[in-house]
Design a protein that fits this description.
- By secondary structure, the chain is an alpha+beta fold.
- The protein is built from twelve helices and 14 strands.
- The protein has a six-stranded antiparallel β-sheet with strand order 2-1-4-5-6-7. The protein has a five-stranded mixed β-sheet with strand order 11-12-3-13-14, with helices on both faces.
- A hairpin with a 5-residue loop joins strand 6 and strand 7.
- Helix 7 packs antiparallel against helix 8 and helix 7 packs antiparallel against helix 9.
- It is rod-shaped, with a radius of gyration of 52 Å.
- Keywords: Coiled coil.
- One of its GO terms (molecular function) is ATP hydrolysis activity.
- Pfam families: AAA_23 (PF13476).
- This is SMC domain protein.
């Protein structure tokens, strides 16, 4: 698509301008130079008024002291002729076929910010970012990702604070390595003690039974001596008794009395033991809580990183008007620098690229006060404009060779009254330095 540029312009009696004719370079810089107060800015304001409409009309449009109303005549590269003249400076737009048209036709290809670049330059960084995102068509997606990232960041911040508190609390809790894992029950210890005492009582009964059998044996031996007559009966009883004795003796040898000393000690120390157990359980719970919140924090960090990568990918794949442009945390950046960290020339380059992208049909941009660029930067900027096929008409407080035309006392040099002309040759044009 061919962009529309300014081929010729003639201005008379507008603000400080008396008579100026310019044929701007089709690509690159056309610098309107001159000293302060000579009418340079009036040239820029005149072009904006001619193409932008009444809202760009200067408050005091007619040159002071002139009885002749302002005259504006601009020929565009698409053949349109734009004129403002007469008492009311009425607009007349003639297309190549001779038909008349008006401001509505101009608005189709004239970008408003191209006529008023300071409006973009002075906008907030976030507003600039919104304009860029609107151009590349990812504003809504990036806004949603920003919202998600902010929500996750706030959640992660809260989780992180809780995790730190939990970890600090867990660290401060005492821990007893010698304490059991679960709380000790006094009734359970007493039950175990009673079981041992019961088993020990049974052992005592068995010992008493052994003594009884031994005494019985003695009595029977005595009876054997006394009662020989009853020998057969006694021997039979003796044989049975011997068997019982053998069994009892074997059982008695295997018996072992359990100690209740440890249980008695545990019962006595139960509160102290349980205090240690509770302390250990509290520490374990605190460490578990801290670990849980730490894991949540790490999970949220992963989600945030994924969203940030999505934002980077979204901007990487977008058709940006200038390599190095991006949006970080809702603010416009260029080569990783925010607006207030960019040089003046970088700001103009970024502004020009974005404004040009707003309306690709508009092939020109107006700039005022280009003296903030040194000659090397000016040359680099001009070369970039030529590569981009973009036309910039700018002013600069200078009468040097970088200027395409010099304005002096409201005249371009070629339009000065003849008696004031010293050298009518065209000044050195932009792009040749």
């Amino acid at each position: 698509m061919d962009t529309i540029k300014i081929n010729k312009l003639e201005i008379e009696n507008v603000k400080r301008v008396k008579a100026v004719k310019i044929e701007p370079n089709s690509n690159g810089l056309t610098i309107v130079g001159g000293k302060n107060g000579q009418g340079k800015t009036s040239v820029i304001d005149s072009i904006a008024w001619a193409l932008g409409g009444e809202k760009f009309r200067p408050s005091s449009a007619t040159r002071e002291g002139s009885v002749i109303p302002p005259t504006l005549h601009i020929v565009l590269s698409n053949g349109l002729v734009v004129e403002r003249k007469g008492k009311n400076s009425d607009l007349k737009v003639t297309d190549p076929t001779g038909q008349k048209a008006g401001q509505q036709l101009l608005n189709e290809f004239v970008e408003q910010l191209a006529l008023d670049l300071p409006r973009f330059v002075q906008a907030g960084s976030r507003e600039k970012a919104e304009i860029l995102l609107k151009i590349i068509g990812v504003g809504d997606k990036l806004t949603e990702l920003d919202k998600q990232e902010k929500e996750l960041y706030n959640r992660r911040l809260t989780i992180g604070q809780i995790a730190d508190q939990k970890a600090k609390f867990a660290k401060e809790q005492p821990y007893y390595k010698d304490a059991p894992k679960e709380l000790v029950s006094a009734s359970e210890l007493i039950r175990q003690q009673q079981e041992i005492l019961t088993r020990n009582g049974e052992n005592n009964k068995k010992r008493q039974n052994l003594k009884f059998i031994q005494d019985q044996r003695q009595r029977l031996i005595e009876q054997e001596n006394e009662l020989i007559a009853r020998l057969a009966e006694v021997r039979q009883k003796l044989e049975l008794n011997s068997k019982d004795l053998e069994i009892a003796e074997k059982s008695a040898l295997d018996l072992y009395d359990e100690s209740t000393a440890e249980l008695e000690q545990n019962i006595a120390n139960i509160e102290q033991i349980n205090r240690k157990v509770r302390a250990n359980l509290d520490k374990d719970k605190a460490e578990e809580d801290a670990l849980q919140y730490k894991n949540q924090y790490n999970a949220l960090s992963t989600q945030i990183e994924n969203i940030r990568r999505s934002k980077i990918d979204l901007l990487k794949n977008a058709n940006l008007p200038l390599p190095g442009l991006s949006v970080v945390d809702g603010e416009l950046t260029y080569n990783d620098k925010k607006w207030d960290c960019m040089s003046g020339s970088e700001q103009l380059k970024v502004s020009t690229a974005i404004v040009r992208k707003l309306n690709p049909k508009c092939g020109f941009v107006l700039m005022d006060k280009l003296e903030q660029m040194d000659l090397d930067t000016l040359k680099e900027f001009g070369q970039w404009l030529e590569q981009e096929g973009l036309q910039v008409i700018a002013t600069r407080v200078s009468t040097g060779e970088e200027c395409s035309i010099i304005i002096e006392d409201g005249y371009s040099e070629s339009e000065k009254p003849r008696e004031s002309i010293i050298d009518n040759s065209q000044k050195w044009k932009a792009g040749e330095f």
